[in-house]
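Recap from last week: sequence in, structure out.
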Amino acid sequence: MTPKDRAEKSAAAMWADDHASKWVGMEITHVDEGEATLELTVAQHHCNGHGICHGGVTFMLADSAFAFACNSRNQSTVAQHNVVSFTAPGRLGDRLIAKAHEVSLTGRSGIYDVTVSNQNGQQIAEFRGFSRAIKGQLFDE
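Predicted structure tokens:
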């Protein structure tokens, strides 16, 4: 199995049970070893009292992209620590694109950066995720 095949099969296994990401309206548009891209169109129910995309929704999109990137090797992996910086607001109707890529993987610990931008390429947020591999796999291999 190639690394890309493994990443795609891992993503399919996770997506099958990822009710939260589906519920909020996310789509996986790319996955490969150590990387993933998820997208979301900002709807009215994603907006806060300021009329902009709720930071928790932006964080959730970045966190999901991080999750698919760090689980791409069929090793069950969870978040250990995450941090986000919001750089611009997402707006109603925006297509938010979260691109995650692996920065470092040493033993059971990984570091991943996720950039969230809109359909025009404007940066909305920067997210850094720290992962920890745990027991188990996403599918039998």
